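This follows on from our talk about sequence and fold. I would like you to pick a protein and set down its sequence and fold. Go ahead and set the record down below:
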Amino acid sequence: MVTGAEQFAVRDAGDAASAKLLNAYRSRIADPEDLSDLRGAFLTDALYRIPATRLARAQAGAGGRAYHYLLVDEPCGPAMGAFHGADLLHVFDKLSLVGADTPEHLTARDVGAWAAFAATGSPGWPAYAPEAAGNSRAIGGSPADARRMITEPPADDVTTLWPVEMPWEA
């Protein structure tokens, strides 16, 4: 059950902290005045990106291997963005289900990575190392992005403003 404290975690951080976080998110999106994009960016981080990165960090910190990726593709266009589960369209080579053709470079790279992970326990890119640059794979994108590694979490103001632990994680 979600408590009032959890619902208002950002508000309770204070107006100054909230304003800083809002401005930091504005620097990440194409149209800084688009409230829908701001909300989407914040909720994507709160629900998926930050917990996934924290889980990878914890797994690596406990001596295990974790492989981290970020979907940079928008298979249904910018209106839908990189929605939850969109990566499965890449995993199972089913972009055609949403009317998109699977580019040849994505089939070989992304579907191949998942097949390798299932067969060997490694998708073919380095395990997540929290302090390393280029510690995560970008999934999707153009042929020029093939095998592109990115750093998660990104070194920007948004990352520094997120609390170390969210109220519901305590």
